[in-house]
């Protein structure tokens, strides 16, 4: 799904060099494996994919970048930013303006007598320009989009999500297709 999302961004931005933020729970790296709470670290994932790449090749690129990012998830986003000496823009978040996340259901969390339920919390404000959350509904994935309304309209976001779905469907049919050939099914 992340590779399909990267292809969507490549098409929308017209750029082959992308940075996508990913949420990672890094408690275990800090000796806090028993900590309960929302302890999320933002991992910036840099991907370079081109229209000539096959979806399979782009998938391998994404996989490699993702594994590298997870190897370094002990370095917090807040620690990383000062080291990069970026020019800051008050209208945009630094380094990462787009975030992709997958919420995977786990009904068996291993605690006897504990019932688990899932509920989506509607975000009241968005820090990032675009935040896509793929939610495992048990039998399918639902996409949730949060975005800056000053940059995108609901119609644009719906169109982007339709293209995203089309890219994924086409990639399932023939993952060796070039990215430029993947169209809505």
Distance between the termini: 16 Å
The CATH architecture assignment turns out to be 2-Layer Sandwich
What's the number of helices? Answer: 4
Major β-sheet profile: 5 strands, mixed
Low-confidence stretches: none
> By CATH's scheme, which homologous superfamily applies?
Nonribosomal peptide synthetase, condensation domain
Overall spatial form: globular
- Strand share of the residues? 15-25%
Give the H and E element order: HEEHHEEEH
CATH topology-level fold name: Chloramphenicol Acetyltransferase
Give the helix/strand class: alpha/beta
Radius of gyration: 18 Å
CATH top level is: Alpha Beta
Q: What is the arithmetic mean of pLDDT?
A: 81
**How many runs of DSSP E, i.e. beta strands?**
5
**Share of helical residues:** 25-40%
| Structural domain tally | 1
Which strands sit side by side, in order, in the main sheet?
2-1-3-4-5
What report would you give on this structure?
This protein is of the alpha/beta class and 185 residues long. The protein has one domain: 2-Layer Sandwich (Chloramphenicol Acetyltransferase). Helix content is 31%, strand content 21%. It contains 4 helices and 5 strands; from the N terminus they run αββααβββα. It has helices spanning 2-13, 55-71, 77-84, 154-173, and strands at 17-25, 40-48, 98-103, 130-136, 141-147. A 5-stranded mixed β-sheet has the order 2-1-3-4-5. β4 and β5 (141-147) form a beta hairpin. It starts with a helix and ends in a 12-residue tail after the last helix.
């Amino acid at each position: 799904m992340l590779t399909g999302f990267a292809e969507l961004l490549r098409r929308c931005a017209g750029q082959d060099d992308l940075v996508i933020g990913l949420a990672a729970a890094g408690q275990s790296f800090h000796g806090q494996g028993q900590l309960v709470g929302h302890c999320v670290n933002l991992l910036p994932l840099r991907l370079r994919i081109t229209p000539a790449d096959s979806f399979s090749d782009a998938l391998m690129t994404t996989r490699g970048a993702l594994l590298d990012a997870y190897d370094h998830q002990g370095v917090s986003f807040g620690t990383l930013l000062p080291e990069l000496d970026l020019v800051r823009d008050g209208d945009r978040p630094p380094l990462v303006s787009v975030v992709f996340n997958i919420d995977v259901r786990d009904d068996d969390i291993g605690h006897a007598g504990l019932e688990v339920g899932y509920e989506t919390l509607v975000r009241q404000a968005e820090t990032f320009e675009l935040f896509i959350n793929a939610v495992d509904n048990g039998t399918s994935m639902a996409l949730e989009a949060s975005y800056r309304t000053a940059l995108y309209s609901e119609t644009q976001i719906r169109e982007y999500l339709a293209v995203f779905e089309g890219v994924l469907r086409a990639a399932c049919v023939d993952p060796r297709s070039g990215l430029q050939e993947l169209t809505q099914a």
